[in-house]
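lol ok so funny story. i was supposed to be doing the assay writeup but got distracted and ended up predicting the structure for this chain instead. priorities right. anyway since i did it might as well share w the group, maybe its usefull for someone
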Amino acid sequence: MKPLYHGTIYEFDEIDVSVGKGYKDFGKGFYATAILPHAERLAIRNKNIAEKRQRFLEIKNGIKTLPIVAYRYNLLFSEEMCGLKVKIFEKADKE
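and the output, tada:
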């Protein structure tokens, strides 16, 4: 088992790869990292982007919304899990 981390602004109870955004590097899917600070940075980045969008909509429409929270999920990954397509990057490269 390997520890993996996922940074997001969404709460979830189970992983659903069909919910992901299609414009990511490999299309829809569930993205995780073995680098804890990377997941934390992504969660904070997504929180900041969502807060800017939220402030714009509040000013434009006068609608008050709930605060946005950044989450970091700690996951355990087993390579024996069947049915998953996994792409592992050992280092940053053009691929």
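The two ends are 26 Å apart (CA to CA). Strands lie at 2-8, 71-77.
back to the writeup now i swear
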